[in-house]
Amino acid sequence: MKFQLFNYFRNDDAIAPGILVCDVSYDLQSFRAFTANVTLDEILEYWDEAKLWLAELANDISASPQGYDAHQLEPRSLRYAPLLSRPGTIYGAGANYRDHVDAMAKALNMNLCADPKSEGIPPWHFIKASRSSLAAHGQDINFPADTSMLDWEAELAVFIGKRADKVRGDEALLYVAGYSCANDLSARDHLKRPQVDESSPFRFDWIGHKSFNGSCPVGPLLTPADFINSPESLAIKLWRNGELRQDSNTSNHLYTIADQISYISQRVELFPGDIILTGTPAGVGMETQTFIQRGDIFRVWIEGLGTLENKII
Question: Is the CB of residue 126 less than 8 Å from the CB of residue 207?
């Protein structure tokens, strides 16, 4: 039986874990197997063991839902918390969709390699600040200061479930706990520092570009990898104020999730709670020089994972 996980705020604003089964939300902390203050962070630390118990629980709930009425959460009052309270490193893949590379090359008159993998070019990643960047489903995101080119990027987020050090591509997906929806918000005008000479390697500011409070909404649900047949064939869409702006499929990845996990793990060990943002498809604002305005509402939907919604204020 499929289940999905989330963190939510209790009435005392403490963060607690929940489980979604058959479209009904339940409070995991109310089950005897859980102790106080357990969140998804701890569950991921022991993912191989935890997912077996969670699968058994989901089967029991599905078979006898009336026996679990006392554990139900009221959907109208459910307030989601960030999926992790203490996220590890957030890695972001750059230029990893064929359609996005084509669109950016045309819009910006850039000579971008359409198939870098076939030419032996390795994947490329940046790092986002973790705790300050991560935001929850339904959370209002404050418009960052001193930017007029704030952009959206719908992405598939990958959550690591066990330590991965120098893993092979054919075993890389074994280290994935699950998947979620993400919006990699980007301050495009902070990428380059105009007061620094164009020839200087210090002209680029990836922290200013990619990291600010709330720059990484993720959620609302963590879908275990066991329930996704292939992460390389998922429809992905983004709406801005109800208008469809991104509409693609993860089959357009230039580098697969397995490629990315394997490559990153050759350089640095991955740990439970690390997150990989796997790239965005065509349709970002930069392609048309159309950027986020205060009051904009974004919805990111990925097949089988759910819908992430946030307002920029």
Answer: no
| For residues 242-249, average pLDDT | 98
pLDDT of residue 199: 84
Total residues found in the chain within this entry: 313
Q: Which domains does the chain have, with CATH numbers?
A: 3-80 (no CATH), 90-312 (3.90.850.10)
pLDDT at 32 (0 to 100): 66
Residue that is written with structure tokens 């693609």 in the block: 248
Give the residue from 302, 65, 265, 61 showing the smallest Cα distance to 178: 302
Count of Cβ atoms closer than 10 Å to residue 100 Cβ: 25
C-alpha R_g of the chain = 20
Average pLDDT over the chain, rounded to an integer: 93
129 burial via Cβ count (<10 Å: 0-12, 13-18, 19+): middle
Confidence of residue 7 (pLDDT cuts 50, 70, 90): very high
What's the token pair of residue 185?
């918000």
d(CA 212, CA 206): 11
Cα separation, 231 vs 217, whole angstroms = 20
Q: Enter the DSSP assignment of 131.
A: T
Q: Which residues of 44-71 are buried (b: 16+ CB within 10 A; e: fewer)?
A: beebeebbeebbebbeebeeeeeebeeb
Q: Which amino acid would we find at residue 100?
A: H
Is residue 85 a contact partner of residue 39, using CB atoms and an 8 Å limit? yes
The 10s digit of each residue's pLDDT in 84-140 is: 999 999 999 988 998 887 777 676 677 777 788 888 899 999 999 999 999 999 999
